[in-house]
Specification:
Layout lengths: L1 H15 L2 H20 L27 H4 L2 H35 L3 H39 L8 H15 L1 H7 L9 H15 L6 H20 L16 H62 L1
Length: about 300
């Protein structure tokens, strides 16, 4: 009975998922994130002269890249600031959509609606505080992981931390703001269900609804993009853009955008498949109905013939 109810709820969520609206939202936020990656770090040097190129002076790099590669640590700071703004906007919109879908599925009486309206501002502040706290806590965890994987510890300590903060903002911030952070100390059934929800999404990697995929796919994409972005640093080219941690940071941003659009593409394929299944089922039902009506006509004619 529970599995049937879950399947029905998932089917309703898929049918109610606004593909066109989320396509436009992802387009806007992707453009904003690209702007953050390519143009926001350049604002540091609009009013000052760029420092000289530190490496490969015999092969000058493109003028567009000079403001980005001149001060990698400052570039990471700008990336973190811009990513926080973009992810905050995206997470708030995603949470609004998930709450709206739950209300459409399960309904809401007048008393609950009034109570939710009165507590919405307080709940929003608590969600923001919880999200910021969890994001910074996960940034410390990512920092330790990066160091264990060989990132510079003493020479580029702050660069490594800003990369960890960027990873946390891209992968953790939307999920915590939308779902709420799991409580590992509580033994209540509600907290247990919430922990199992997080475990299903990020340990088992088993999202069941379009909204869950919009959380899981970008998080995986950010981590994979950061990991892939490490490989160009090992190349013996001695180019300014190979400075730590520019390529992992930009790889994480690209991976996040790819995760967004992979999720939407996956949901579009499922939606079209469901539409095709529904049309096939409708045709089969119409054919069965016509066959049964023909059989009834034949049976009535045979009865008339017997009576004659």
């Amino acid at each position: 009975m529970t599995a049937t109810t879950t399947s029905m709820s998932t089917d309703k969520i898929i049918s109610n998922f606004p593909l066109l609206r989320f396509g436009s939202l992802l387009g806007v936020h992707s453009i904003l994130l690209i702007f953050v990656a390519l143009f926001l770090p350049r604002s540091s040097f609009l009013l000052s002269d760029l420092p000289p190129q530190a490496s490969s002076r015999d092969r000058p790099q493109h003028e567009f890249l000079r403001p980005i590669t001149a001060e990698p640590q400052l570039t990471l700071v700008w990336l973190c600031i811009g990513a926080i703004i973009v992810q905050a906007s995206w997470a708030s919109r995603l949470k609004y959509e998930t709450v709206s879908v739950k209300l459409q599925l399960f309904g809401e009486d007048e008393e609950a609606r009034v109570k939710r309206t009165m507590e919405s501002s307080k709940e929003r502040l608590n969600s923001i505080f919880d999200t910021v706290r969890s994001t910074f806590a996960c940034s410390i965890f990512f920092h330790v992981i990066l160091i264990l994987f060989g990132a510079p510890f003493t020479e580029c300590f702050f660069r490594t931390y800003f990369l960890a903060l960027l990873l946390s903002v891209l992968s953790i911030y939307p999920s915590v703001y939308t779902l709420g952070s799991p409580d590992f100390l509580s033994s209540e059934s509600r907290a247990l269900v919430h922990r199992m929800h997080w475990q299903r999404l990020f340990a088992e990697l088993s999202p069941r609804s379009p909204y869950e995929r919009l959380l899981v796919f970008p998080a995986i994409g950010s981590l994979l993009g950061c990991w892939i972005g490490v490989f160009p640093i090992a190349l013996d080219w001695d180019r300014p853009w190979q400075a730590w941690p520019l390529t992992p940071a930009y790889g994480a941003i690209v991976g996040n955008i790819v995760g967004w659009w992979s999720s939407l593409t996956y949901d579009t394929i499922i939606f079209l498949a469901d539409v095709d299944k529904a049309s096939i089922a409708e045709k089969a039902h119409a054919e069965n109905k016509s066959v049964s009506s023909k059989k009834k006509k034949v049976g009535s004619k045979q009865k008339e013939a017997k009576t004659l």
